[in-house]
Amino acid sequence: DAIEIRVLDVQECPAADLAVLSAAVAVLKALVGERWQPLALQQRWPVAPLAAILETTVRRGEEAPIDDADYLAAFGFGRREGRAGELWRHLVEVLLPGGPAAEPVVARALAVILGEGTLARRLLAAAGEEPSPATLHEVYRTLCVCLEKGEPFHV
Question: What pTM, to 2 d.p., does this model score?
């Protein structure tokens, strides 16, 4: 009878951390408030399919395919299959239609994450297929500047 958040990606700046947190809190409130399913139905979910979705998402991030229609329906997602990023985009649009209420900078950071992908995916895109040490140095120098300025990392 508990919710455990086991994976939270630390982002490139505090605004991005707050954006991820805002989205997670909104989803948790919707689940607890039984927006899409009653609690009794949520509690009947077997662990195996949830673990499979988690494992795929850990490996593939926002590109992870989710083809469990019942799982997607549990979040009000109107399709029988989709990708993890599409599900999160749907959840944010439904639960945070104007973006996170905290600050515009947080809303912008969430838009970057949903539009350009996770920080890991953006770093890989910036580094390229076979990055040189100089390229990696430049990518991470840019990431440091993002942290200093409180801005999201763009590719």
Answer: 0.84
